[in-house]
Amino acid sequence: MPEKTLPHETTVPEAVSTAMKSGSNKPRSLGQDAWRELRGSWLFWASGVLLVIFIVMAAFPTLFTDVDPRQADLRGHYLAPPNWSHFFQGDWFGYNGQGQSVYARTVHGARASIIVGVCVTIAVTVFGGLVGMLAGYFGGWVDGLLSRITDIFFGIPLLLGGLTLLQAFTHRTVWTVTLGLATFGWMQIARVMRGAVITQKQADFVTAARALGAGTGRILFRHILPNVLGPVIVVATIALGGYISTEATLSYLGIGLQDPVVSWGVDISAAQSQLRDAPHVLLVPATFLSLTVLAFILLGDAVRDALDPKLR
What we know:
Helices cover 69% and strands 0% of the residues. By secondary structure, it is mainly alpha-helical. The chain has one domain: MetI-like (MetI-like fold, Orthogonal Bundle), CATH 1.10.3720. Helix 8 packs across helix 9. The chain is elongated, with a radius of gyration of 26 Å. It starts with 11 loop residues before the first helix and ends in a 5-residue tail after the last helix.
């Protein structure tokens, strides 16, 4: 006799067929799994909102203010503190010692600081990642040589190396500061990449690709690289905030960006002598700088938690 089923009962083959049609049996990729974890992380959303604001501010400063950051009025605005009349004029944070709008300079200063941080991060990720991949994959004397070079550069602190190199430039711009920081900032990425490649090159899919005749370039960039990007992305995201703060430190010491470039570090350096009389001149750009660095660190922590299954 045929097996009877209840009106609302579903047999096993029907359930399997329904699951296959809906696509629920497909395993999620690493990126999909990480995005699912990120969507439920308050760290990701808090840092993401802050970064979107700062990035839009850097890309389109005129959306936030139409005041020229270099326009000066010593007679009427010298170290004027924030007040309601200035608030309604769009100058929310008062004026500095040159009679310039602190708010306008803070908004426009985001561009130089963030560009330096992003460009340095891209440079060190590409160069350090390539060094780490070659050292980890080939091993032997290639690994020994590249590792010793990495160790030599590791012995030079980033700030000290940047100070020394930038002294050679009489006119320092965003690109010279980027070069100075990238020259001494790639070593951590190289070490992380080297360790990840050493682990992945022993995997079965790499052995299979090599047995099928895949070349070194194809194995490195098509098979190994996608599987080692996770830890590199985490390190690069956290380091980006550090590069922004290092640029501000160099500008504060007078070795980084210089006038007429508008940046947070330049404004903090100029405001140090006015801290007692007008603390707002220093506190406003310093607060924006701190929030930007904090946002990148929080984003890096959120990405690390999403990509590392041991931390879930």
